[in-house]
Design goal:
Helix 9 (223-232) packs antiparallel against helix 11 (259-289). The longest helix is centred in the first third of the chain and has 45 residues, at 89-133. It contains 19 helices and 2 strands. The N and C termini lie far apart (80 Å). The chain has helices at 26-39, 44-63, 75-83, 89-133, 138-176, 179-192, 199-206, 210-216, 223-232, 242-253, 259-289, 312-347, 355-369, 374-382, 390-402, 420-429, 434-446, 451-461, 464-495, and strands at residues 349-350, 353-354. By secondary structure, the protein is mainly alpha-helical.
Length: 496
């Protein structure tokens, strides 16, 4: 029931005394209180107690099971018993992530092909005919069309479909209330690693963008534990690295299975890499908390919000506008100048050899030692501004150095097809093997943060020292991991 107070005689509801008037005397206040007491009725106290006990009984009925009563069904508790279970929590989490990636990989193939056909297959000849009609010099049309436009078109055709599927699915899980349960499951592991349990929440943000994940570490009060979270956030696969993982897994890992199972195998490979990133964050957190960042582990209360029915239309709109298009625009902004740089180093020649070929040949011995190649290393140098540039740079440089004809229109020009067979033809001609693909996926996971994340780390820490540590630690780890994987792989292959 609702209990209310009646206004005093002559006093309107919401009335406020004039600030310039004298305050009422104590006797006037007591007199008005006495008058209001009789206006509210003699049963006010009883009615108030009844309302309180009625609400308390309703709450108790939901939470308490009395002896002899059948336990009441509570949907939230039933779901939590599964998703936060020590037995079923992690298998369900892996199954859910696998389903998300499988839907993303399978669903993105057709729209990616359509966009590539439209933007590259039809767009490039059309733009070249316009440039010829305008009598543009070859170097200008090459820079604008074969460099800037093709890099941008490839980024759009490769990134837009997966992001348009992945982000809404991921946002639906977040809107439903599942991601805090993931953080709850991971809390004990972070505590044992000497880190703060809230680091799991910042890691979840890092799966969208590492820069956002670094900012999200503000929820951690301890400076020591916040610094650990900042340094290790790079091991969460950001949106700029998902296209690399999905494409390479689809071509090389999924290609090992039949067409029926290729999508599932590819999804499992991507999930495996994402889980490896979480394990590396535990390992590095443990190492930091036991060495240069020693200290006591903080405690905190993690509130699990109630489950909510996902607002599908609003979630799709929000994820498309705030995540997909925002990330795509950032990729396009970086892709255009990067495409220009790639075209220039591919067409500026010294002694009949382009600058790109000099760089690739110079880094090839190091790349082969790491189970990679010079093209991949040059691509990661070019892609320091944004991870989204890795794949288009690799493809453009592979066309240049592989000598495959029919896939491009000239030096440094991206090829005009998007089928898996043509991609595999290109990579095979470039000397790629399964080892190259596996180590590229590992290096993509571990390598240094992008420039935006590095700048964000500096802004959040205010320290050049820790910014350098956060940037170089994963890079050194990437070199070490790929080196040992390559040596063990070749050793086993030699024994077999």
């Amino acid at each position: 029931m609702t209990v209310g107070f009646a206004p005093a005689p002559g006093v309107q509801p919401g009335h406020k005394p004039d600030p310039g008037s004298a305050p009422p005397s104590v006797d006037a206040i007591l007199a008005e209180a006495q008058q209001l007491r009789w206006q509210i009725g003699g049963d006010f106290h009883q009615a108030l107690m009844e309302a309180i006990y009625t609400d308390a009984a309703a709450i108790a009925d939901r939470a308490v099971t009395r002896p002899g009563e059948k336990p009441r069904f509570d949907l939230d508790r039933t779901i939590d018993r599964l998703v936060t279970s020590r037995i079923w929590g992690f298998p369900l989490m892996l199954a859910m992530l696998t389903a998300v990636f499988w839907i993303t990989i399978t669903g993105a193939n057709i729209p990616s092909q359509m966009l590539a056909d439209l933007l590259i297959g039809k767009g490039v000849p059309l733009l070249h005919s316009i440039a010829a009609a305008l009598h543009l010099p070859w170097w200008l049309s090459g820079l604008l069309i074969d460099g800037m436009y093709l890099a941008t078109a490839w980024v759009i055709s490769v990134m837009l479909p997966p992001m348009a599927i992945f982000f809404p699915l991921f946002t639906l899980l977040e809107d439903f209330g599942y991601l805090p349960r993931v953080a709850f499951n991971l809390d004990n592991f972070y505590r044992k690693a000497g880190a703060h349990g809230k680091q799991s929440l910042s890691m979840m943000m890092g799966f969208g963008c590492n820069a956002a994940g670094v900012v999200a570490t503000r929820i951690i009060d301890s400076p020591r534990e916040r610094l650990i979270a900042i340094i290790t956030n790079n091991f969460a696969l950001c949106n700029g690295r998902w296209p690399t993982q999905i494409l390479i897994a689809s071509l090389f890992i999924g290609g090992l299975a039949s067409a029926r199972w290729a999508g599932l195998i590819s999804a499992l490979a991507v999930v495996g890499v994402a889980v490896l990133g979480v394990l590396l964050s535990f390992l590095v957190s443990y190492g930091l908390s036991r060495s240069v960042l020693k200290g006591e582990v903080s405690t905190f209360s993690l509130e699990l919000p109630p489950y909510r029915p996902p607002r599908v239309l609003q979630t799709i709109y929000t994820s498309v506008i705030d995540r997909t298009l925002k990330v795509l625009w950032r990729a396009v902004v970086f892709a255009m100048p990067a495409g220009a740089v790639i075209w220039l180093i591919s067409n500026v020649q010294i002694g009949g050899v382009s600058l790109a070929e000099y760089l690739v040949n110079f880094l090839d011995p190091v790349g082969l030692l790491l189970g990679l190649n010079g093209v991949i290393l040059v691509a990661y140098i070019v892609a320091i501004p944004a991870n989204e540039l890795v794949i288009p740079t690799i493809l453009m440089l592979t066309v240049l150095t592989s000598g495959v004809s029919g896939l491009g229109a000239g030096a440094g020009v991206m090829f005009e097809t998007d089928s898996s067979a043509d991609l595999m033809t290109l990579f095979t001609a470039g000397g790629w093997t399964l080892l190259t693909a596996v180590n590229l996926m590992l290096f993509s996971l571990i390598h240094n943060p992008c420039s935006t994340t590095i700048f964000t780390i500096f802004k959040e820490t205010g320290s050049r020292k820790w910014t350098t540590v956060a940037a170089l630690t994963p890079l050194v780890m990437g070199f070490i991991v790929t080196f040992f994987v390559a040596q063990i792989w070749r050793l086993v292959a030699g024994l077999l």
